[in-house]
Amino acid sequence: MKEITHLVVNGCSWTYCQGLENPTVDGWPALLAKKLGVKVVNLAIRGCGNDSIHRRTHEYVYENLPSNSKPFFVIAWSQYWRRESWQKEFLGCTDYDDYAPVNFPRETPQSNLERALLDNWSYLDFYRKTYLYKLSLMNLFKTHDIEYFMSDYSSPEEQDSPDIKKIYDRFPNLVNTCLNNPNQIIPFHKITKNFTKLPCGHDDEEAQVILADYIYSEFSKRYQAPKVVEGNFLTLNDFKLSENPSTRDNQTVWR
Which domains does the chain have, with CATH numbers? Predict the structure, then answer.
């Protein structure tokens, strides 16, 4: 039986549950938390990449440590090529600097940021770093005795990329360590691939239920029923993710 104070999820728009009318009720993080009998802290940011997921997970874990709480994490990795950039002007802030997700640069750059991205654009580099991000979080959770699941929302064609084979050929032990992670569960896009998508392309309410059921079944296989324990923990109201106005509506604790 696993002691747990709260659920923490991190990812991109698929974990944010973009497109749902009421993601704090119908999204898979909320549904999973209800099954576990705990509250959820959803760190997901729409459009973010794996560098952002990696960074924000580290920040949350260390800022939450003084609470001595017992979180359970679900990390849903995003597309490999997505990036974040330190760009105050993009956020429109005057009193706080932060990172923000950036889009795929146009072939004809419209800013210095896009020029810099194109000059350093390499899928091989993106894939290679993602394996390091995964390994880093695996070690982070092991160091602090935090239980977790990892999954992916990357597209099937990315999984078959020849660049991934190049990385495997060069660093087989590193890649195998990630692939053989016992806390790695089936990619979420495979669980919901046959369900209707919303107009924005994300999973509908039915798929959210199926995904929450799948994650809970994997939890039950490993830990049986969770033992919910009382305790304080870091909420989104205490943990500043970003000053980007597009993410502020997610700054709550989801029940």
Answer: 3-250 (3.40.50.1110)
197-239, pLDDT tens digit by residue? Answer: 999 999 999 999 999 999 999 999 999 888 999 999 999 888 8
Task: Tell me the CA distances in angstroms from 19 to 133, 198, 208, 244, one per residue in order.
Answer: 28, 7, 12, 19
pLDDT tens digits for range 147-191: 999 999 876 556 677 888 899 999 999 999 999 999 999 999 999
Contact of 91 with 168, CB cutoff 8 Å: no
Report field, pTM of the whole predicted structure over 0.85: yes
Measured distance CA(121)–CA(159) in Å, rounded: 19
What is the tally of helices (H) and strands (E) in the chain? 12, 8
CA dist 106 and 118 (Å) reads 8
